Amino acid sequence: QVQLVESGGGLVQAGGSLRLSCEASGRTFSSYAMGWFRQAPGKEREFVAFISWRGSNTYYADSVKGRFTISRDNARNTVYLQMSSLKPEDTAVYYCAAPPPYYSGNYYYPGNYRYWGQGTQVTVSS
């Protein structure tokens, strides 16, 4: 069982930056790939970024590529999402999620993730 807790959301002006954190419980964090998703009002949950359990592979949605960076610190059981050059369309609730251990399959489909955090609100004003 993995419990995930996000933090770091808030209100920021367009062009600004935020860093989201997701802390995981348990002693086997290093065996879990991690993903970030977001959901805006009235829209479906969408993939944002993924990092493999070893941290050697990262993938991003086209809409955030070049602006967002996912990273992990296994010693701290934490995954991060550094967001820069934020746009109003980045406004959403951001969720971190973990698929089953040692996962290497499809990373952009939310249904493939087993554990979810409660979400943190990010609001970008124009």
Description of the molecule:
With 126 residues, this protein is an all-beta fold. 0% of the residues lie in helices and 45% in strands. Strands 2, 4, 5, 6, 9, 10 and 11 form a seven-stranded mixed β-sheet that branches. Strands 1-3-8-7 form a four-stranded antiparallel β-sheet, with no helix packed on it. The N and C termini lie far apart (40 Å). The mean pLDDT is 95.
Per DSSP, the total helix count is 0
- Helical amount: under 10%
Strand tally, please? 11
Distance between the termini: 40 Å
Largest sheet: 7 strands, mixed
Mean pLDDT score: 95
What's a concise summary of this model?
The protein is built from no helices and eleven strands. The chain has 126 residues and is mostly beta strands. Strands 2, 4, 5, 6, 9, 10 and 11 form a seven-stranded mixed sheet that branches. Strands 1-3-8-7 form a four-stranded antiparallel sheet, with no helix packed on it.
